[in-house]
Amino acid sequence: MMPKPNTHTVTHDNLLDLVPTGPAWTVDWGEIWSLWPALATLDTCPQDPIHHAEGDVGAHTRLVVEALVADPDWQGLPDVERANLFWAAVLHDVGKPAVTKHEDDGRISSRGHSRVGASIARELLWNAGSPFAWREALCGIIAHHQLPFWLIERPDPGRLAIETSWRCRPDHLCLHAKADALGRICQDQKAILESVSLAALTFQEGDCWEHPFAFANDESRVAFFELEDRDPHYAAHEAFPCTVTVMSGLPGAGKDTWIAKNRTEHPVVSLDAIRDELSVSPTDNQGQVIQGAHERAREHLRAGRDFVWNATNVTRQNRSRVIRLLRDYGARVEIVYLEPGPDQLRRQNRDRPDAVPDAVITHLSKKLEPPQLWEAHEVRLA
Q: Which intervals of the chain form a coiled coil (predicted)?
């Protein structure tokens, strides 16, 4: 859980020091495997032999990393990018032990391991003090690392390529996918590699290979992600009656302090304040609280007033509900995300007059999904 310290002292500098360098490009597996218990569990996690005749997840992970390190394209990357992809490869299947199942037909499945793995990697790297942008780029690779295998089979691969380019960097994603294909023993390895090559071509043809697709403006991007039939090249008109600041962050992250310093003139729709008014505990049913917040938000929206929506909003699903309401009134939406380090978060929460129980923070941290740039007109890390 993100608020709990790691049992091992791992720092971001430790991780950078373990990235292989030329001319030998040697991987120190002893040091790497000793960093986190989550890696050791990979050696006892089975895989379906049809797709992974090489054996357990640990064996596969080592083969993937070795394939990546041997790739001249990886070796030629800038140091920061090379380190990012290296650790993405080390951690890409770290979610498998949590979801691996023996099916009734004798097969072995690990559905959802990419999403779970991204969450685990986020926790490990948060505790290691890795920079936010570096960490989230890595988690984006893990969350979508299987996509190049099946992108071309989707009904609209061009659109999916554009969407993906805002979630992770496609050239790095395909470089990882190539190593992932080479780091296994299976009969369809050649077909997988061909799919990765076709995915790379799709990204290149969509002009989103090394960078996110360039929309005409922020509204064009937001509308594209909202509407399935939206033309990505359409330049939307931008005229907003108001701007709403949507706060996001775990309890104790400092949202109230940020608002007091940066949005002094704005009215605030605060879920915590409404809970206090209604005498509703954070662990009780929140329906009445949410309804009250929406009613107050609509008053500001109808008046065309800028205001702040203050809640944890740590999952994309929760943010999307709020943003949908704001978009119905044509508002410009900015998300402000606060994420102090583990020690600072605990200290700030303890110092609050209404400190949140550790169990609540732990529950929320399990679900944490920091906002991504495509979710609103503007997303900032404060």
A: none
